[in-house]
Design a protein that fits this description.
Shape: globular
Number of helices: 19
Low-confidence stretches: none
Helix content: 40-55%
Number of strands: 8
Structural class: alpha/beta
CATH class of the largest domain: Alpha Beta
Radius of gyration: 22 Å
Oligomer: single chain
Distance between the termini: 13 Å
Strand order of the largest sheet: 1-2-3-4-5-6-7-8
Largest sheet: 8 strands, parallel
CATH topology of the largest domain: TIM Barrel
Order of helices and strands: HEHHHHHHEEHHHEHHEHHEHEHHEHH
């Protein structure tokens, strides 16, 4: 059954969701080992580490002091998958084998040296990870097109609760906003610019700061809230409850324009990351079932529902199975819990058409994390598909065809990428 694992290992992947900065920016910041921690920082903080440790402006410790502090808390979190990804990355990519203060300091210097290597992204993404293209969300369309295509956040267009929020959109759109209609025109202008600059999808991440439930306010109801903000010259803000009518109307507008521009809409569902929300937020804000009214209304939209809806993945699977305009996306899932993702993926194979499954997004801020996450994702996918073949539910050919689809071909089709799909010949399985 190692045929499946070998096939998946050799597959050239399309990575559907990252937060990777341009390589020149990594070089400029001189990223070190402590910048690679990303997700495990959440575990370190919940295990008692002071969050200021991760603030470059506040942490004035020497490297040995940082290493000592890190190792103390590392002993508390090294069991988690987040921690395992750090371990895999530095062991595979930097030959790390000395988890002492001296070893961490030596590793730190090797990572800083790598950050100055102009070929770092090619070596890790293209060669070691076998990633042909990744989508990255870094609040700009100016990405390294050799490796990336941009996905753009739209939350700043939605989260309108003060006059300053309106003025910020006014500056980005380079236009004057007097009335609510002007604001909607500004949203249209910004979205069109994103598309013209290469954006492949919009991103709605509002579940980090409000519910996913979107009602259907009238233009007049939304405009009433807008006008109140527009005349609040002393920087007063309105409550989230009052602002929701305005926000909901704007969300509808973003979906409508995404349909017109023929770009998918990525939506955060499920688990919350403390480094984004500061406190883990209310995970119930991310319940995927709250999206049902939007799925019913916008049949021409292509909704990419991120993160498997975890921990609400049974409802998630039911929804993706039933709605033609909903796509399952396993971004982030494997490192949250490979065990839960294995169960989710097993059920997904049984329930969801394979053309609607997007199998990987690293969701990391540094390429080392992406490398380790993809290594884990391929392991989990290989184990699930091998089990299906052993149980007589799939042939080896069908298992490898499934892998081709979820790790590459479905993304090429959905995001209209000018890349060659993976092909499969029966004789390929016996080479």
């Amino acid at each position: 059954m190692d045929t499946i694992a070998k096939h998946i290992d050799n597959l050239r992947v399309i990575d559907g969701h990252e937060h990777l900065i341009p390589q020149k920016d990594r070089s400029k910041m001189n990223a070190d080992f402590f910048d690679l921690l990303h997700y495990v920082s959440s575990d370190l903080i919940t295990a008692g580490m002071n969050p200021s440790f991760f603030d470059r402006n506040k942490n004035k410790m020497s490297d040995p002091e940082k290493a000592k502090e890190f190792l103390y808390y590392w002993g508390r979190v090294k069991n988690t998958t987040y921690a395992q990804m750090v371990k895999w990355a530095v062991e595979d990519l930097y030959d790390m084998d000395d988890w002492t203060v001296e070893g961490i300091c030596a590793l730190n210097e090797r990572v800083k040296k790598a950050s100055q290597d102009p070929d770092l992204y090619r070596k890790i993404l293209t060669e070691k990870s076998k990633i042909d293209l990744a989508f990255t969300l870094i609040f700009t369309t100016k990405v390294d097109v050799e490796f990336f295509r941009p996905v753009m956040w739209t939350d700043h267009l939605v989260k309108v609760r003060s006059l300053k929020d309106i003025e910020s959109v006014e500056r980005e759109a380079v236009t004057d906003i007097y009335e609510f209609g002007d604001y909607l025109d500004a949203v249209d202008t910004i979205l069109k610019r994103y598309v013209d600059e290469g954006m492949v999808a919009t991103k709605i991440g509002v579940a980090y700061w409000r519910t996913l439930a979107v009602e259907k306010p009238t233009f007049g109801e939304a405009a009433t809230v807008f006008n109140k903000l527009k005349t609040s010259h002393l920087c007063e803000s309105v409550s989230q409850e009052e602002a929701k009518r305005l926000q909901d109307f704007i969300i509808h507008r973003i979906i409508q324009r995404s349909i017109e521009c023929n770009v998918p809409i990525q939506i955060h569902t499920g688990h919350q990351e403390p480094s984004v929300s500061s406190n883990g937020n209310f995970v119930t804000n991310s319940k995927v079932t709250d999206l049902v009214p939007l799925l019913l209304e916008y049949k021409k939209a292509k909704f990419v529902l991120l993160h498997g809806g975890y921990p609400f993945y049974n409802e998630y699977l039911s929804l993706v199975k039933n709605f033609p305009n909903a796509y399952a996306d396993l971004t982030w899932c494997y490192i949250l819990s490979p065990t839960a993702t294995k169960q989710m993926l097993t059920q997904m194979i049984e329930m969801v058409p394979q053309s609607k499954i997007l199998g990987f997004g690293g969701d990391y801020s540094q390429v080392e994390g992406t490398y380790a996450h993809l290594k884990l994702a391929k392991k989990v996918l290989s184990e699930v598909l091998t089990s299906k073949v052993e149980n007589g539910d799939m042939t080896e050919y069908d298992a490898c065809d499934f892998a081709n689809r979820v790790l590459r071909n479905n993304l090429i089709e959905l995001y209209q990428l000018d890349l060659k799909p993976a092909t499969l010949q029966k004789e390929d399985l016996y080479v």
